Inverse folding.
């Protein structure tokens, strides 16, 4: 008993940032890695069914359900559980969709500036062992959903939320976005140009979580983004990126259009986030 109390006291004495980083990383990444294990061990479609059960239980627990009862309120707060208005759903879904479009537009523009490293992007994402095209698409969807739910719960919920309360939103989003980028450095596709883009994704998702006071739209946006990432950039079941860098083509019309598309979808994302923040403030005041 005394040893347990000592460990509890030691944990409470740790800085909020350190505790948030540890808890957010464990809650997000441990859960996100359940799906690959299920896929390898059980195969499709049994793995998809098992992951659906796991994610349902995970969301229930992370949002405040189940033991330990002493931490239920804290888990509910970290999950940003609250009721959303119709207007918030409208702007939140718009923010999620245009965030996903921004993520892909940034990749397209990057690979007009540098050569697309196809081999690095495809390494480790072979799903040819899955027998049929529909099952491959199901695996893509479940992979994206797993990452969207678990990583957003960990990074924008359990990591960012405690830091927001103690150190403010700028510090919280900066640190959670930096950690979000760092945990992706073990991927073959984590090139110099890709890392700042992933950091930017983290900033936008952090702003979305803070503005809406909810993780729902971050999860939707992350899932939509990852469906495209897995299906197009990594496994290529949705097609191949064939555009050449401007070092070969020169500053052609598609390059200017791609810049314009990125600016447009990013602007819409930021407008939607701003509207969400305004609605959230009004909801808190009412």
């Amino acid at each position: 008993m005394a040893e347990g109390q000592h460990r509890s006291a030691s944990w409470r004495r740790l800085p909020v940032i350190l505790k948030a980083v540890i808890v957010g990383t464990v809650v997000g990444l441990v859960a996100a890695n359940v799906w690959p294990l299920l896929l390898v061990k059980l195969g499709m479609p049994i793995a998809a069914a098992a992951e659906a059960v796991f994610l349902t239980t995970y969301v229930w627990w992370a949002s405040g359900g189940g033991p330990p009862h002493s931490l239920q309120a804290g888990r509910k707060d970290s999950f940003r559980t609250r009721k959303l208005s119709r207007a918030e759903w409208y702007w939140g879904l718009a923010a999620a969709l245009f965030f996903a479009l921004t993520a892909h537009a940034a990749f397209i523009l990057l690979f007009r500036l540098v050569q697309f490293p196809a081999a690095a992007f495809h390494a480790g994402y072979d799903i040819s062992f899955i027998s049929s095209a529909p099952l491959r698409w199901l695996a893509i969807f479940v992979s994206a959903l797993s990452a969207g739910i678990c990583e957003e719960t960990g990074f924008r919920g359990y990591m960012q939320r405690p830091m927001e309360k103690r150190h403010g939103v700028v510090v919280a989003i900066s640190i959670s976005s930096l950690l979000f980028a760092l945990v992706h450095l073990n991927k073959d596709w984590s090139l110099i140009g890709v890392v700042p883009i992933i950091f930017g994704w983290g900033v936008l998702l952090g702003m979305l979580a803070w503005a809406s006071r909810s993780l729902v739209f971050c999860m939707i946006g992350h899932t939509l983004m990852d469906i495209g990432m897995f299906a197009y950039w990594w496994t290529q079941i949705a097609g191949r990126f064939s555009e050449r860098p401007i070092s070969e083509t020169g500053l052609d019309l598609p390059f200017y259009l791609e810049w314009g598309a990125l600016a447009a979808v990013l602007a819409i994302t930021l407008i939607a986030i701003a509207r969400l923040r305004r609605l959230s403030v009004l909801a808190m005041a009412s």
The chain has a mean pLDDT of 93. The CA atoms of residues 117 and 219 lie 28 Å apart.
